[in-house]
Amino acid sequence: MNLSEINFNDINIQEAGDWPPAGKAVLVVLVVAVVLGAGYYFLISDQLDQLDTVEREEQTLRQEFIEKQRVAANLEAFRSQLKQMETDLEVLLRQLPTGTEMPDLLENVSNTGKKNGLEFELFKPEAEQPRDFYAAKPITIKAKGSYHQFGAFVSGVAALPRIVTLEKATLTSATAAKGAKGGNGGKGATVNEPLIIEATLQTYRYMDENNTAASAAGKGANKGAVKK
User: Fold this and answer.
1) Which domains does the chain have, with CATH numbers?
2) Residue 124 DSSP SS3
3) Which of 65, 70, 79, 176 would you label with 134, given CA atoms 20 to 30 Å apart?
C-alpha cells in the first residue's frame, strides 16, 4: 500500500480492523506518539521540574555541608581563638572604670596635668555618651603651658591604668594671643614659649546592670566644671 495514495478524508477509524498492515502500523505509531506526548506533558515535565528543584537544593546542602565540615575540622582552633578574644576583652574591660571609680580617674587626669606644669583654666567633664556596653565621657580642658609640658601631660595620661585618649587639641601662642588683643601682632611660638592649650580628652566607663549611664550622668552634673 502506497501511503501517498491514501485519501485521509475517507479514513474511518471504526473500520481500522479492516485496514491493511501498513495503515494499522501508522495508526499504532500515532497512538503511541500521542500517549507518550500526553505522558510527558502531564507526568514527566512536572517530574523534571521537581528534579531541577531537588538538584538546586542538593547544591545548597552540599555547600552547607562543606562549610560545616570546614568549621568542624577547625573547631579546636576556633575555640582557642574565642578563648583568647574573651581574655583580651576582659583585659580591656578592666581598663574601663566603673561609675564609682570615675571621679578618681578625673582627679588623676587633672593631677597629671598639674605635675607636668600645666596651669588649668578649665577642666570640665562633659555629659556621658552611652554606647553598647560602655559610656564615653569627654573632658574639655583649657590650660597654659609649654609644648614640652603638654607633651609630657599627654604621655602621662596615656600611661594611666585606665583608657584616656586625646580627641583633639589646639595650641596657640600666649604671646601671639596677647599681641592680637593689643593690636601689635606677635611672632610664632617657640618650644618653651607659653601656650594656650584647648583640648578634648575622652575617657570611657564600663556599664553593667547595677551601674547605668544615667546614674553617672547625675554624678557628672553634680561635679560640674572646675575652673582655676
Assistant:
1) 102-227 (3.30.70.60)
2) strand
3) 79
Residue among 129, 128, 124 at smallest CA distance from 106: 124
Category of 183 on φ-ψ map: left (φ > 0), alpha (ψ -120 to 50) or beta:
left
> Which residue has better confidence, 210 or 148?
148
DSSP structural state of residue 40: I
Exposure of 15 in the CB half-sphere (CA atoms within 13 A): 6
Cα gap 210→166, rounded to integer Å: 29
Q: Do residues 117 and 146 touch, judged by C-beta distance below 8 A?
A: yes
As a dihedral over the C-alpha atoms of residue 82, residue 84, residue 89, residue 92, rounded to 10 degrees, the angle is -170
What single letter denotes the amino acid at residue 147? Y
Question: Using CA atoms, how far apart are residues 164 and 113, in angstroms rounded to an integer?
Answer: 13
Block residue for cell numbers 480492523: 17
Sign of torsion over alpha carbons 32, 33, 35, 36? positive
Name the pTM for this structure.
0.49
First vs last C-alpha separation in the chain: 125
Torsion of the alpha carbons at 129, 131, 134 and 136, rounded to the nearest 10: -30
Confidence of residue 135 (pLDDT cuts 50, 70, 90): confident
CA angle in degrees (0–180, nearest 5) for 171-172-176 = 165
